[in-house]
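[job 4417] fold queue: 2 targets
>>> target A
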Amino acid sequence: MIENWVVNLMIKHLSYSSISRYLKCGKQWKFRYIDELEEESSEALQFGSAWHDMIRMYHADTQYSVGHCWDMAYEKMQLPDELIHLGQKMLTSEKITQTIQGLNPNLETLEMKTELHIPGVSVPVVGFIDMIDGGVPTDIKTASRKWTQEQADTDLQATFYLAALEQAGMIKLPAKFRFVVFTKTKNPDVQILETTRTHKDIFTLYGLVNEVWGAIQREVFMPSDPSNWWCSQKYCGFWDKCEYGSKK
């Protein structure tokens, strides 16, 4: 059976990022999870990982300043000079530094693993929430432009995490979710956007994941529309391996 084929290829769980990747480009999903090809890490991903590490280190051990935690984070990630300087520039913003210092996470929830079991899907959806801050599940983002409230209200990541936390008995729906978005603009800024999810949102999510899982079982891996912004050398780590990308 097809499902045995998937299991034999070690697909033991899904994640928000893998489902989001499949929805963007089934071909890219296949390269990553079926073919297990090496993926080049984009500068945006490298910077975002280092920024998350800085915030986690600062709140795990506040004997260090935010700036010192950035030094440790970029050295660990071995960031190129331009990304190091970008982070340093962002930290000259008093608003950004104060926002980082003002977070009040439960230390046990820093990078806390969540697991969501969806009827009809034979593998769990696994994720790691950045923190629960003052009782509100919170995700840290770095972005090249400001978010809108509509983005926060429709973002699937919030729905995944709240569904998993509700299933674990940690929250009751409807529940709030918070995005802290640090923008890498000419004048760096930070936004705090809160959004709410209901049982209706969770049921819609369940249907979507069932559709994606069913398509994976049928080996449906449609490529992205090449005109999409993510179908480019800058944003796709499989650009040189894809006949729909590198040959454009």
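>>> target B
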Amino acid sequence: MKRYLLIATIFVFIAVMVCACTPDPSLHPGQNGNQTEAPEPAPPPRNAVRLTMDTGAVSGTYYPYGGTLALAIHAATGYIKINVNPSGGSVENIQQIAGGLADLAIAQNDMMEYAYNGSDIWNEEPVKNMATLMSLYPEVCQLIVAGDSGIMSIDGMKGKRISIGAAGSAIEANALQILAAYGLTKDDLLVQNLGFDDAAAAMKDNEIDGFFVTSGLPNTAVLNLSTSLDIRMIAMADNKINNLLENHSFYSKTTITERDYSFITEPINTVAVQATLIARADLDEQMAYDIVKAIIESKEGIMVANAKGVFIDPKFAVQAISVGLHPGAKRYLKEIDVL
């Protein structure tokens, strides 16, 4: 009997201790029952999503850089996976966004403005289902001439054999705007419409005297040409640059130096448009926020994988915006005080 009483006493003691140690559910967690702020529950993980990004030619700049960005975005968000597709470049990419066939794309900001407003070289319906996520890096307008061409300035191209880029291309639009700043039209030149790879080959064969390029620095075609031919780059006068900036909001002033091309002996002042990451305007706001945040906060890793990563910067991200920012991108950029 004494044994049963001892066991019963032990159980009662344990029950009392358990009750004494159980926190009062009416209180928030805290030492000695003091009320404290309950920690916010962690947000539930977002379900994995797969997006598509249209870029450019496999041998170009957009495609490999798009792949670098896709990897960084997935690593940082954990839920956004991106299929990176090669394409014909800005025009095709904007068309894909317009048709809902791509979620993201890289495009020049000047072509974006034409498409959004249905102006200049955009001959289709205006594209309104498009929003800017961020500017990525400058695409610099370059005029390359043969060393023996006698061309020392843009004025000096009159009557010369000049390629102004493929017909209907963004390069052609840039070239015509630069010529207009000097009071010239394509009728003042012996015009050819060649892409920069074909133009470089034509110059090597003495079929043209010069050609326009709009691209990131350095341009591979120009770089390769400089190893086999005496070439020079033509600068723009400051007043002509200012004229372009006043008339076209998508341009910014920039300088090309010997760090970009070894054949340059003095800084070349010119203008640039921006390679821009765009999205469908109806892309989920939180996804847009997470994509921009991931890119900006992953700069160091992106730079290791692709030299264009050096331009990732909050202030550059909002430079020369030609089509409105996506609400998700705007929210993040406001949080980091660049808007």
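[job 4417] complete. Note on B: The domain at 139-273 is CATH 3.40.190.10 (D-Maltodextrin-Binding Protein; domain 2).
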